[in-house]
Amino acid sequence: MRLLVIFACVVAALAQELPLAEECDAEKCKLPDCRCSGTDIPGGFEAHRIPQFVLLTFDDAVTVSNIETYRSLLGERKNFNKCQVGATFFVSHEYTDYRLLNELYSNGYEIAMHSISHQSQDYFRNADKELLRKEIADQKTIITNFGAIPAASIQGVRMPFLQMAGNASFEIMKEAGLKYDLSMPTTQFDYPGMWPYTLDYASTQDCISGPCPSASFPGLWAIPMIAWTDLDKYKCAMVDACFSTPADDDTEGWFRFILQNFERHYLGNRAPFGFYVHEGPVRTRPGLRAALVRFMDMLSTMNDVALVTASELLDWVQNPVSLADYLQKPCREVTLGRRCRSVTCVGLPSNHTTELLNMNNCLRCPRVYPWLGNPLGE
Ligand SMILES: *[C@@H]1O[C@H](CO)[C@@H](O)[C@H](O)[C@H]1NC(C)=O
Ligand SMILES: *[C@@H]1O[C@H](CO)[C@@H](O)[C@H](O)[C@H]1NC(C)=O
């Protein structure tokens, strides 16, 4: 009897405890599916022999008021190799127009997740698995159904407020078949910059907004958000979170500011350079917007730079090739989504607000506004 009780306890403990991530052993942890955290260049290349990858990401809802910025910034823009540039959208659910999300996806941009409710930072710091299942796994259900976007194309997560929730978000990512997190800033590994790595083994990255994961999650990737340095030498993970910046209308100043940050990567170990921002500041600060356009124009003339989506970046990290070989590769395929059968839904009731909400989408009008625990709005 006593043995049985002990046995039951051990089984219960095993079911609860995740395996602790151990110190990384580069002999055992090899590409394409495992990489130790570090600043070494994947494939062992010298920096000038690989492309400098640049990531442009936008967070939050995709709406009729911000789609114009996305269309005009990205439009027909190409990299040096004539392939369309990439951008990644970390979408939060409330107010998102799923027809516009489908448009972004169909035009070749990457759609990733940023939660359903995007409520307070404390809420996400303390979020457990059950809650994150509703915020993240269910959001994938919303996006695939209402946005008519293939599940396989949805791979990434950025936690709201860049607030980590320990192991929980990674447990849910595994469950939901997701591949990477792009929420963890590093100020310690900005020069040289830390390359993306997997969570098979313990990470050496600094943890800015903990609790960070400490269990082992084989095959899940972390793309560190390498901090920028502002004009007073403070570090910032997102462009619009930098405190000391050029004035809103100072295009020249903003361009120099962007270049200074870019050059730490380009002239360093070429770790991915992130331009992580929200649409609002780009729209309302003319200097920032004009400088971003000028910066992207400049990138498209450089044969050793590529503006790509986060999953394209990971494709290269998993199978690194030289710049010369990269330039020979065909462009990523833009697999057109199921075309959107446009549905306009107005005045849907919801439990989280007394406001009636609209939800344009590609599926049908749900009975109620989709929300936590009811992703299909049934
Ligand atoms: C994550 O999992 C590891 C291994 O089971 C555990 O030691 C750690 O306390 C967990 N972290 C949190 C914040 O729960
Ligand atoms: C609110 O929640 C109740 C109980 O869970 C449910 O029956 C009702 O349909 C919900 N209403 C809306 C508008 O979501």
UniProtKB/TrEMBL annotation:
Tagged with keyword Translocase: no
Family annotation (InterPro entries): CE4, Glyco_hydro/deAcase_b/a-brl, NODB_dom
GO biological process: carbohydrate metabolic process
Record carries keyword Signal: yes
Signal peptide extent: 1-15
Keywords recorded for this protein, A-Z: Signal
Span of domain NodB homology: 52-180
GO molecular function, one term: hydrolase activity, acting on carbon-nitrogen (but not peptide) bonds
Name assigned to this protein: NodB homology domain-containing protein
Protein source organism: Pieris brassicae
Lineage: Eukaryota, Metazoa, Ecdysozoa, Arthropoda, Hexapoda
